[in-house]
């Protein structure tokens, strides 16, 4: 076990946001404690008699398709989203695309996002292919003039010139996907979200799509795609997120994540514990105290020292130096302040480490607070993982009608 020493005795108490590697400018998608609940009507009454007997009973059961998803995606990353059928991949993509609202949590996207989600999403079957190109591209933020300029290229990419004036409802599923993909890649997106729709296209079109994705990747755009092809994830992705029953069980290198999923799906023998054990960096726990070696404390007074200790597990393949942001968040996840490691991060080898953030004098503050930790590769700024801990600490400042007590004067002018 090693102890990551923050710079100087006082600890890494940073000021200002996003100053170092891994700062805000590299983040294009940020999902915080995202959950999505559906109402499941599995036991819905099917006959009039049943409906009568069940009258007044629950209308449906809550079903969590996503639970507490924390993910930070950096600019230029190609991320695969994998998991068994029904694990929540499409739901997550729709929430990130803004098509579904999360039941709780928040999603922030920086830049233009183009999505190619399930068949049927985005196109109006009663309109022609031509009208749908205009409709779709304008929804993605293009002006009519821009669409006029791109129109031929979109139609050529889709290879649908002979069908472009037919109603989309008469398209085959492959033709539909061709047009959708052609529009999505022509709107100059910063972020491209692609569901497992490529499988619908024929082999030639799949090759064309994959070449386009590779081109986007080379241009440093961000791509998030759902696929059941674990080989494709290994070939194309920098990172894989694995979902299981709505929870993210892995976020890390493709070779490791796909191995985990193959074990889960039974196509590889399991050789030991799975899940987070495989993640290269896992924020494991957080603790609060008045001194780095002091006992755990949960209640503080203003003016006292607060030490936030973040325990991290690093596996093989973890970045050579890791950079941490620790956000102290209040009610409704409002960030109160942020602390970060010194520029260059900490060099930590495989094993368990503790990073202490020491706040020498707590401000006059009132309430209960939690900690959210982002870890990124200090060399590249690429986000590695994020975790929001449930543990709380309290600060019993004077109640001044708000979170903070500040000095002020009330004066009448004139
Ligand atoms: N609108 C909805 N209402 C109720 N349940 C839903 C809805 N959409 C999805 N679900 C359920 O949420 C769960 C996750 O679905 P989702 O489509 O995200 O899974 P997936 O991982 O993409 O699956 P697949 O690999 O089969 O495409 C499933 O159990 C699904 O039945």
Automatic annotation (TrEMBL):
InterPro entries: AAA+_ATPase, ABC_transporter-like_ATP-bd, ABC_transpr_TagH-like, Bact_Polysacc_Export_ATP-bd, P-loop_NTPase. It holds the Pfam family ABC_tran. The keyword Transport applies. The keyword Nucleotide-binding applies. Keywords: ATP-binding, Nucleotide-binding, Transport. GO terms for molecular function: ATP binding. Residues 48-270 form the ABC transporter domain. It comes from the Bacteria. Residues 1-20 are annotated as: Disordered. Belongs to the ABC transporter superfamily. PANTHER family: TEICHOIC ACIDS EXPORT ATP-BINDING PROTEIN TAGH. This is ABC transporter ATP-binding protein.
């Amino acid at each position: 076990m090693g102890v990551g020493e923050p710079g100087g005795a006082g600890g890494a108490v940073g000021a200002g946001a996003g100053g170092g590697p891994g700062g805000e400018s590299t983040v294009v998608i940020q999902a915080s404690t995202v959950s999505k609940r559906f109402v499941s009507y599995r036991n819905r009454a099917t006959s009039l008699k049943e409906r009568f007997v069940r009258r007044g009973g629950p209308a449906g059961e809550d079903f969590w398709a996503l639970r507490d998803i924390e993910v930070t995606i950096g600019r230029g990353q190609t991320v695969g989203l994998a998991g068994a059928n029904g694990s929540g991949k499409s739901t997550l993509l729709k929430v990130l695309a803004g098509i579904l609202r999360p039941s709780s949590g928040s999603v922030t996207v920086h830049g233009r996002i183009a999505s190619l989600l399930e068949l049927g999403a985005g196109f109006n079957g009663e309109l022609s292919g031509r009208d749908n190109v205009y409709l779709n591209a304008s929804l993605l933020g293009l002006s009519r003039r821009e669409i006029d300029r791109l129109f031929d290229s979109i139609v050529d990419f889709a290879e649908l010139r002979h069908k472009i004036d037919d109603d989309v409802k008469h398209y085959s599923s492959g033709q539909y996907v061709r047009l959708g993909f052609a529009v999505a890649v022509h709107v100059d997106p910063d972020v491209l979200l692609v569901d497992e729709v490529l499988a619908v296209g024929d082999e030639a079109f799949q090759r064309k799509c994959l070449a386009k994705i590779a081109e986007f990747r080379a241009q440093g755009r961000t791509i998030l795609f759902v696929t059941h092809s674990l080989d494709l994830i290994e070939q194309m992705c920098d990172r894989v997120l694995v979902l299981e029953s709505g929870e993210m069980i892995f976020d890390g290198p493709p070779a490791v994540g796909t191995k985990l999923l193959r074990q889960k799906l039974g196509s590889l023998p399991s050789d030991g514990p799975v899940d987070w054990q495989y993640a290269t960096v896992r924020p494991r726990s957080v603790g609060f105290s008045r001194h780095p070696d002091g006992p755990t404390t949960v209640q503080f007074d203003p003016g006292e020292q607060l030490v936030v200790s973040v325990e991290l597990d690093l596996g093989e393949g973890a970045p050579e130096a890791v950079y941490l942001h620790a956000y102290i968040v209040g009610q409704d996840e409002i960030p109160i302040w942020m602390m970060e490691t010194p520029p260059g991060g900490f060099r930590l080898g495989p094993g368990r480490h503790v990073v202490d953030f020491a706040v020498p004098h707590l401000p006059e503050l009132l309430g209960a607070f939690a900690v959210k930790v982002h870890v990124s590769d200090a060399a590249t700024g690429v986000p590695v993982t994020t975790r929001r801990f449930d543990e709380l600490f309290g600060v019993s400042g004077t109640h001044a009608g708000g979170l903070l007590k500040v000095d002020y004067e009330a004066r009448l002018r004139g």
